Amino acid sequence: MLPLVYHPIYSELELPDGHRYPISKYRRLYQYLIDEMKLDQDNEILFCQPEAIGVDELKALHHPDYIEALFGNTLPAAKMRRIGFPWSQQLVKRTLTSTAGTKMAVDLASQYGIGIHLSGGYHHAHHDFGSGFCLVNDLAFAARHALTLDNIDKVMVIDCDVHQGDGTATLLRDDDNIITFSVHCDKNFPARKPASDIDLALPKHTTTTEYLETFESILNLALAQHQPDFIIYDAGVDIHQHDELGYFDVCLDGIFRRDHLVLSRCQKADIPIAAVVGGGYRQDHQQLVELHAQLVHAARKVYHSG
Ligand SMILES: [Zn+2]
């Protein structure tokens, strides 16, 4: 069984014309996967819908004043600009639902070995501020949640979005049982990159082969050294060669192979994995769908082939 977590609210947000955030990609990805399922009689996909978490649940992770101001719409204008979305009731509801979705993927992974969230990856949210389209750090929230489950003593967050996981790094700096591992472009947002436990910074124009070879060698070392019992994986597709906010030269098949690599390592070692789709930016949102679908294709191959 391959559980996929989705909620229609992910794409239900009014944004100004020309806004960079590809808000419709979630609905498009969901529809693409539904259409694929109809063609495939043997599918074993289970769709699950999360319910928004309560605001108070976030106050252990983020500064309570930040959470109060964010959800009460009293955050200073400069702080909202840093986030990059206009404030709305729908925005905060979407945030609470998406955070719940990554948490739900963790619970599903503990049951089925894998859970995929068709949203998530808001890794630029810090303790007391948000940035880069990220209000609440669902990865850090889910990693701490995973540690509350039976037999989970060490969690690794593997963040393959092209942008460094700065918020996750700072939020989890003192969590000795959570290892943060970010693979990203060295000359890209965020300008300041606070240290993760493991940072693999690759240069602009890194090719598919360079990316996969380097990532695989560091991944092998990281897994051998830290022996995690749970993995949270950000499968951002902004590593793609045509991404509008990324600078790598990784092709479509490279994304599939990266996702397949991570998932097959987990499956072979019997490590549950909760994956999120992460970043991916195109003016034409439909062009992102096939890229994000690689995560699901890789999961079907790894988990359904026995
Ligand atoms: Zn990104």
Automatic annotation (TrEMBL):
Gene3D superfamilies: Histone deacetylase domain. InterPro entries: HDAC_classIV (IPR044150), HDACs (IPR000286), His_deacetylse_dom (IPR023801), His_deacetylse_dom_sf (IPR037138), Ureohydrolase_dom_sf (IPR023696). Pfam families: Hist_deacetyl. Residues 23-285 form the Histone deacetylase domain. Transmembrane segments: none annotated. Keywords: Hydrolase. The keyword Cytoplasm does not apply. Belongs to the histone deacetylase family. PANTHER family: HISTONE DEACETYLASE 12 (PTHR10625:SF19), HISTONE DEACETYLASE HDAC1-RELATED (PTHR10625). This is Histone deacetylase.
